[in-house]
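Q: I'm building a small set of examples for a reading group on sequence design. Run inverse folding on the following structure and report the sequence directly after it, with nothing in between.
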């Protein structure tokens, strides 16, 4: 029986689960949610996940969300051995640390820098330097090991690989100055089943998503700007009538009125990744991400 996965491929955490499920050769029943239509707020979905996050996995009576939690659940239930998520408490702690680093440091730094670009502005230099620092930490993790938590691939590699892919695609980040990350990243692209296909599909659909998002946002801004004018126009006849009544004997006194990279990273046009929610789910990657 397939597992239900509520997802959107433009969301990096969703891609993590897709990638790991392929590695485990699991059959997924993919249920795609359109976050711009706020499908993740539908009552039937909120019954499953009151936080309205995607990805959300349903395995029989078990419902799991937060991508790292899903990875751990799948590894423990469907992994053929304990290398993906070790039973040894010290090794497991190392894997957990890498997962928390991805969520709290690497992905956070990328999101912080990229969000103003998504909104049509520019990223801040100090935020870009935090991205560089985060990648530098990853480089140190990989100094003496093949994978991010040791000599065996673990759930942490899947999570971090997708974040690095987003960093590569969105910001055209130069990894060559981080030799260990560069080596590991190229290895991931070769070894992780479905990596190229999933990343390519995400890039294509993200472009369409961003076009829709910006169109909706522009329409909302136009509506907000026009509302005061409409309100003013609606009130104008009444005001004019009152004014005419008050000044009808003094019209002869009225005067007609007289007739605006690196140290200086280059901002790149967004290519593939998402959003915090605003009116039209303004950064749906953020509301839909972990």
């Amino acid at each position: 029986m397939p597992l239900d996965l509520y997802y959107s491929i433009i969301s990096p955490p969703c891609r993590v689960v897709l990638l790991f499920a392929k590695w485990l050769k699991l059959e997924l029943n993919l249920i795609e949610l359109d976050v711009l239509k706020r499908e993740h707020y539908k009552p039937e979905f909120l019954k499953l996940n009151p936080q309205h996050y995607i990805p959300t996995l349903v395995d029989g009576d078990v419902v799991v969300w937060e991508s790292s939690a899903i990875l751990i659940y799948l590894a423990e239930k469907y992994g053929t051995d304990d290398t993906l998520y070790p039973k040894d408490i010290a090794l497991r702690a190392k894997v957990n640390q890498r997962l928390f680093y991805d969520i709290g440091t690497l992905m956070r730094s990328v999101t912080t820098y990229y969000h103003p670009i998504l909104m049509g502005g520019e990223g801040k230099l100090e935020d870009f330097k935090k991205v560089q620092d985060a990648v530098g930490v990853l480089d140190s993790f990989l100094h003496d090991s093949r994978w991010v938590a040791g000599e065996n691939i673990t759930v942490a590699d899947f999570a971090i690989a997708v974040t690095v892919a987003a960093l590569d695609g969105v910001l055209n980040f130069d990894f060559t100055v981080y030799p260990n990350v560069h080596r590991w990243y190229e290895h991931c692209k070769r070894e992780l089943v479905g990596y190229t296909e999933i990343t390519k599909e995400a890039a294509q659909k993200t472009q369409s998503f961003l076009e829709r998002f910006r169109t909706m946002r522009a329409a909302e801004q136009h509506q907000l700007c026009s509302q005061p004018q409409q309100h003013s126009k609606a009130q104008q006849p009444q005001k004019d009538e009152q004014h005419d009544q008050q000044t009808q004997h003094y019209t002869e006194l009225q005067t007609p009125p007289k007739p605006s990279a690196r140290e200086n990273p280059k901002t790149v046009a967004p290519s593939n990744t998402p959003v915090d929610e605003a009116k039209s789910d303004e950064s749906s990657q953020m509301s839909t991400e972990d």
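The longest strand covers residues 3-7.
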